[in-house]
Specification:
- The protein has a single domain (3-72), classed as Glutaredoxin (3-Layer(aba) Sandwich), CATH 3.40.30.10.
- With 73 residues, the chain is α+β, with helices and mostly antiparallel strands.
- A hairpin with a 2-residue loop joins strand 3 (50-53) and strand 4 (56-60).
- It contains 3 helices and 4 strands; from the N terminus they run βαβαββα.
- A 4-stranded mixed sheet has the order 2-1-3-4, with helices on one face.
Protein backbone atom coordinates (compact mmCIF):
# COMPACT_ATOMS: atom_id res chain seq x y z
CA UNK A 1 0.00 0.00 0.00
CA UNK A 2 1.35 3.40 -1.03
CA UNK A 3 0.39 6.22 1.39
CA UNK A 4 1.27 9.88 0.83
CA UNK A 5 0.55 12.90 3.01
CA UNK A 6 0.25 16.10 0.99
CA UNK A 7 1.53 18.87 3.22
CA UNK A 8 2.50 22.54 3.28
CA UNK A 9 5.21 24.26 5.37
CA UNK A 10 4.12 24.96 8.95
CA UNK A 11 0.89 22.95 8.64
CA UNK A 12 -0.19 22.04 12.17
CA UNK A 13 -3.04 19.83 10.90
CA UNK A 14 -0.47 17.88 8.91
CA UNK A 15 1.44 17.13 12.10
CA UNK A 16 -1.76 15.83 13.71
CA UNK A 17 -2.36 13.46 10.78
CA UNK A 18 1.27 12.28 10.84
CA UNK A 19 0.95 11.52 14.56
CA UNK A 20 -2.23 9.48 14.01
CA UNK A 21 -0.63 7.51 11.16
CA UNK A 22 2.43 6.87 13.35
CA UNK A 23 0.18 5.59 16.16
CA UNK A 24 -1.53 3.24 13.70
CA UNK A 25 1.84 2.02 12.41
CA UNK A 26 1.16 3.23 8.86
CA UNK A 27 4.21 4.05 6.75
CA UNK A 28 3.81 7.13 4.55
CA UNK A 29 5.71 9.59 2.39
CA UNK A 30 5.49 13.34 3.02
CA UNK A 31 4.96 15.43 -0.11
CA UNK A 32 5.41 19.20 0.23
CA UNK A 33 3.04 20.55 -2.43
CA UNK A 34 4.83 23.93 -2.47
CA UNK A 35 7.93 22.11 -3.74
CA UNK A 36 6.00 19.69 -5.98
CA UNK A 37 3.04 21.64 -7.42
CA UNK A 38 2.31 18.83 -9.87
CA UNK A 39 0.65 17.04 -6.94
CA UNK A 40 -1.88 19.88 -6.68
CA UNK A 41 -2.72 19.40 -10.35
CA UNK A 42 -3.33 15.70 -9.79
CA UNK A 43 -4.98 16.04 -6.36
CA UNK A 44 -6.69 19.46 -6.09
CA UNK A 45 -6.76 19.89 -2.32
CA UNK A 46 -7.88 23.19 -0.82
CA UNK A 47 -7.10 22.22 2.76
CA UNK A 48 -3.90 20.53 3.90
CA UNK A 49 -3.26 17.79 4.64
CA UNK A 50 -4.42 15.56 1.85
CA UNK A 51 -4.13 11.80 2.31
CA UNK A 52 -3.49 9.81 -0.86
CA UNK A 53 -3.76 6.02 -0.69
CA UNK A 54 -2.70 3.96 -3.70
CA UNK A 55 -2.98 6.95 -6.01
CA UNK A 56 -6.45 8.05 -4.84
CA UNK A 57 -7.18 11.13 -2.71
CA UNK A 58 -9.04 9.59 0.25
CA UNK A 59 -9.15 12.38 2.86
CA UNK A 60 -8.54 16.12 3.15
CA UNK A 61 -8.05 17.87 6.45
CA UNK A 62 -7.80 15.69 9.57
CA UNK A 63 -9.81 12.47 9.29
CA UNK A 64 -11.14 10.80 12.41
CA UNK A 65 -8.81 8.15 13.78
CA UNK A 66 -11.66 5.61 13.61
CA UNK A 67 -12.15 6.33 9.87
CA UNK A 68 -8.44 5.81 9.27
CA UNK A 69 -8.47 2.56 11.22
CA UNK A 70 -11.36 1.29 9.08
CA UNK A 71 -9.63 2.35 5.87
CA UNK A 72 -6.39 0.54 6.79
CA UNK A 73 -7.88 -2.61 8.34
Amino acid sequence: MNVQVLTTPGCSNCLVLEKILDQLGIKYDLIDVTEKPEYLEKYPIFTAPGLVIDGKLEFTGIPKKEDLQKRFS
